[in-house]
C-alpha cells in the first residue's frame, strides 16, 4: 500500500466534513463512507473508527496488493462494529509458554499477566475484510480544523506479522501526553493490516 494513498485518505478525512444534522457528535464524509465520532470526554478527543482504506481483500483480491476503496456505503458508521485481521500464533509460541507462566507467577503486583499500562486484549471478530483505520483528533483541533494544523502520528502495530491490530494503540496515553502543558495535541491514526 502506498503511503501516499494513506496520506491522501487522512487528508480527505480531515477536510471533508458532513453536517451532523440533529446529531451532537461530528460526522465525516470521505466519499466512499460516512463515519460518526465516538467521544472520549475524559481525554477531550474524538475517534472515527473502522474507516476502510482499501477494498476488502477477499475473493480475487485475496493474494493481491490492496487497491483503493471504490465501494460506496452512504450509511453512517458509528464505529461499533469493528473487526481485526485473522490472527495466528508463531511456531515459537508453544516453547514460550513455560517462560510466560514463570514470569507471571513471579510478578508480585501484576496478577493479570499483562505488562503495566498494556491495552486490553482485542476481543473483536476476525475477518478478512479488516483493512480499517481509526483517526483520533483532539476536540480543540476539531473545533478549529479550518485554521489549525497539527502533527499526525501513524500507529502501526507490532506482532511479528502473526497477530495484533489497531486496537493495541495506546491512544489515551498518547493523546494525553500530546495535549499536556497546552501543547495542542496531535492527530493519531492507527491501522489494521493483513498478517
TrEMBL record:
Domain Carboxylesterase type B positions: 38-195
InterPro entries tied to this protein: AB_hydrolase_fold (IPR029058), CarbesteraseB (IPR002018), Lipase_GDXG_HIS_AS (IPR002168)
Transmembrane segments: none
MF GO annotations: hydrolase activity
Annotated signal peptide: 1-22
Highest taxon, organism lineage: Eukaryota
Keyword field: Hydrolase, Signal
Family designation: Belongs to the 'GDXG' lipolytic enzyme family.
Protein name: Carboxylesterase type B domain-containing protein
Amino acid at each position: 500500500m502506498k503511503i501516499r494513498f494513506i496520506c491522501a485518505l487522512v487528508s480527505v478525512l480531515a477536510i471533508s466534513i458532513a453536517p451532523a444534522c440533529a446529531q451532537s457528535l461530528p460526522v465525516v464524509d470521505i466519499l466512499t463512507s460516512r463515519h460518526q465520532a465516538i467521544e472520549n470526554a475524559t481525554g477531550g478527543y474524538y475517534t472515527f473508527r473502522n474507516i476502510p482504506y482499501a477494498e476488502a481483500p477477499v475473493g480475487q483480491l485475496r493474494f493481491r496488493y490492496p487497491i483503493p476503496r471504490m465501494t460506496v456505503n452512504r450509511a453512517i458508521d458509528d464505529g461499533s462494529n469493528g473487526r481485526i485481521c485473522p490472527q495466528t500464533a508463531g511456531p515459537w509460541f508453544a516453547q514460550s509458554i513455560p517462560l510466560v507462566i514463570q514470569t507471571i507467577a513471579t510478578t508480585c503486583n501484576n496478577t493479570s499477566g499483562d505488562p503495566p499500562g498494556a491495552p486490553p486484549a482485542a476481543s473483536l471478530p476476525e475477518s478478512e475484510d479488516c483493512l480499517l483505520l481509526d483517526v483520533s483528533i483532539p476536540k480543540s483541533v476539531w473545533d478549529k480544523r479550518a485554521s489549525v494544523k497539527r502533527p499526525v502520528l501513524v500507529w502501526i502495530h507490532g506482532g511479528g506479522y502473526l497477530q495484533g491490530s489497531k486496537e493495541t494503540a495506546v491512544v489515551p496515553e498518547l493523546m494525553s501526553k500530546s495535549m499536556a502543558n497546552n501543547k495542542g495535541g496531535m492527530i493519531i491514526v492507527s491501522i489494521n493490516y493483513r498478517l
